[in-house]
Amino acid sequence: MTPFKKTLLTSLAIVAITPPLALAEEAQQVTFKSVMQGLLTDTQQITKGIVLEDFALIQQAAEKIVDHPKPDLAVRMKLVKAMGSAMGKFKAKDTVVHNSAVKLVEAAKAKDMLAISKEYQVLVNGCLACHSSFKEKVANILK
Ligand code: HEC
């Protein structure tokens, strides 16, 4: 193949795999709901890991919860503004889930199923506690 043809093919390949700008921007949008859907997927993976005694899966999924993406800055700004003084309580609920995910990672590394199942309860109760206090309020702010 001549160098020219090679370059041409490479350029074509790059064009083919580069999404249009609009699509790329859309893919970067992180909504509050998309973060939550990610948390649900991760929690489901932890459940699967517990049932199958797959410690690597539990660790991996709990790490994802620890490092879950933040909603876009605009979303967070809107939330902070509308929540006002309730933001502290909201953050505290988030911290419960975060800390329990950190402990789940440790328990999975230690292959300690008893600690895992205990912490799993804390995690899921943490999801429910925030939902019962804030889900409706925040959904109304962000809709
Ligand atoms: C700090 C508060 C908070 C915590 C902790 C929290 N959530 Fe949520 N969650 C919310 C709020 C608020 C909504 C509603 C968002 C909206 O409607 O825009 C929500 C909505 C959801 C939804 C519905 C998303 C949709 O598409 O409508 C799922 C699923 C969900 N959460 C899963 C979880 C799981 C799983 C956990 C625990 C691992 C969790 N959440 C922990 C606040 C929280």
Secondary-structure topology with pairs:
Layout: H1 3-17, H2 21-28, H3 32-52, H4 55-66, H5 73-83, H6 87-109, H7 113-142
Helix pairs in contact: 3-4, 3-7, 4-6, 6-7
This protein binds heme C.
Heme C binds next to helix 3, helix 6 and helix 7.
Key attributes of the depicted protein:
single chain; 7 helices; 143 residues; mainly alpha; 84% helix; 0% strand; Four Helix Bundle (Hemerythrin (Met), subunit A); binds heme C
Question: What is the alpha-carbon Rg in Å?
Answer: 21 Å
**What's the number of structural domains?**
1
CATH fold assignment:
Four Helix Bundle (Hemerythrin (Met), subunit A)
Q: Can you tell me the overall shape?
A: flat
Number of helices: 7
Low-confidence stretches are: none
CATH superfamily, by name, is Cytochrome c/b562
CATH architecture: Up-down Bundle
Helix-strand sequence: HHHHHHH
Largest sheet: none
Strand content: under 5%
Q: Give a list of the ligands.
A: heme C
Helical/strand content category? mainly alpha
Mean pLDDT: 90
The total beta strand count reads 0
Distance between the termini: 56 Å
